[in-house]
Amino acid sequence: MSSATTTHKKTATLKDYIAIARPDNWVKNIFMVPGMLFALSIFHTPFSNELLLKILYGIVSICLVASANYVINEYLDAGYDKYHPLKNKRSSVVSEVNPVIVYLEYALLGATGLLIAYLVSLKFLSMALLLLIMGIIYNVRPLRSKDRVFLDVLSESVNNPIRFAAGWFIFTPALGIPSSKWDLDWINTFPPVSIIIAYWMGGAFLMATKRFAEYRLIGDPEIAGQYRRSFKFYTENSLLVSMFFYAITCAFFMGIFLIKDRIELLLSFPFFALLFSWYLRIGLLKDSPVQGSEKLYTRKWFMLYLILFTIMLCVLMFVDIPWLYWFLKNANNY
What we know:
By secondary structure, this protein is mostly helical. 67% of the residues lie in helices and 1% in strands. A two-stranded parallel sheet has the order 1-2.
């Protein structure tokens, strides 16, 4: 590839330093919204100016922390991204960036994000801090989990339940610091473990599908291994099998959550299965759009379905359907 052998780079401009923070990827923080809605349906948090301010602070905080992770990601990956057919056009690859400015940008974004997170609650701050730490684990040696087969997917996709929990904690009651190790009132404000695992595995399915599409796009296992060390150990078959595992695990824990915490959402399960199947179909396409959210938006029917599915989830979270409880009670008698 010509970009892989380029030796002369232009000096990075302000636009380039903004680009490596990837503000266009802030849309991924929409994964906070289900956490907000689930918490709202459980705690019935009254709307007020204070809550609206917390929502604003929360969204801004997670966006800034995510951008801090993107900054360090792009800078440390510049030497690898040049082997990727699409990422070789990133600002950090084609421009000569100043490491001092990069680290200052990272520190400013991260510190500001954490400071704003503190204005929401201590539990929200813990999620913002965890998101920042996961960026270090994922990108920085000697950990650099993105280089480790399967762990790259799992450590990246764990950001989804972190975002979910962050959205959740915006709407939970502020109880301060627990008075004892077994303070149940404080513990009960945490999201159910079943939805956290389901959210994690759902994100892993999406990420593994992206890895599969990237692996096929590069087309050469040797070049793929230069782009990302974990690709030296992947094959199309191993990625497909992992996608299957993540999808089944997600469905299993999602089922546990739906039955225990919100049985009305059981009605969404066939549509949930269709969403995963449709996404997999898109992921198997040549030069698949799942490699970037900006490309996925071009699948208009899929995006329309996603919007309608989201609306249906919102309705089912706040509308009670008594006969479902009767059905579950009577089913247990057989």
